[in-house]
Specification:
The chain is mainly alpha-helical and about 220 residues long. It has 2 domains: about 130 residues, no CATH class; about 60 residues, no CATH class. About 50% of the residues lie in helices and about 5% in strands.
Length: about 220
């Protein structure tokens, strides 16, 4: 069975399990964990394991909220999802966990899904793992023509609105009217220094990306 697993997938599963083991070993040493009714946290998953669904749901929900990279930084939302997916793939390779389905809304892993969804949205709102997808650039000649024709101008409310709309699309990769309406002031951060000044934009509010669990499941499993 193991020979049927693609090398990249097997590597991803090993990575996910390594992250789990490191967290579980550390967490099991804490006094608060030792006092918990679900102590100890299972470090290894194997055939015949007596770990219940309730215990899995309980501890993996803490896992997704607490894990960090070795440098202490937070995992990006996609990485966090992939770690949980890797653990699920490993569990499914075991006879006693073959029907595990973390991301199925009808499965009993409600606590895990809520924790993962909340954490992914929180990370996205903080700009972690968010990259701006730019639209195709408009030529400099076209941009100058817009200013010369008066479509973009600084002397009228309409011209100024058009200019803001245009440069939001050009600079931050926004694609349409609804994304402009959904903009929030918290997405823009002005950074100033003696050497340079710039505006940092986090695109977490775009219509195609909310950073949550439902969004990434839709992209991975339902995209055409």
């Amino acid at each position: 069975m193991q020979q049927c697993v693609p090398r990249a997938t097997a590597h991803a599963n090993d990575w996910a399990l390594t992250v789990w083991r490191q967290w579980a070993n550390y967490r099991n040493q804490l006094q608060e964990t030792r006092r918990d009714n679900y102590f100890p946290i299972p470090v290894e998953f194997s055939e015949g394991s007596q770990v219940t669904v309730q215990k899995l749901d309980y501890w993996i929900s803490f896992f997704v909220l607490e894990i960090r990279r070795q440098d202490g930084q937070c995992y990006p939302p996609n990485s966090l999802f992939n770690i949980v997916a890797g653990i699920q793939r490993h569990l499914r390779s075991l006879a006693n966990f073959c029907d595990i389905a973390f991301f199925n809304k009808s499965s009993p892993f409600l606590r895990l899904r809520k924790a993962l969804d909340c954490r992914m949205k929180e990370l996205t709102a903080s700009g972690i793992g968010v990259s701006v997808k730019r639209a195709d650039p408009i030529s400099l000649d076209d941009e100058i023509s817009l200013w010369n024709s008066g479509v973009l101008n600084m002397s009228s409310s309409k011209g100024l609105s058009y200019a803001v709309f245009f440069y939001n699309c050009k600079t931050f990769g926004l694609r349409g009217n609804q994304e402009q309406k959904n903009l929030d002031a918290s997405q823009f951060t002005v950074h100033c220094s003696d050497e340079n000044s710039y505006v940092l934009f986090n695109s977490w509010n775009s219509k195609t990306f909310n950073g949550g669990l439902d969004w990434i499941i839709d992209v991975l499993f339902h995209a055409v």
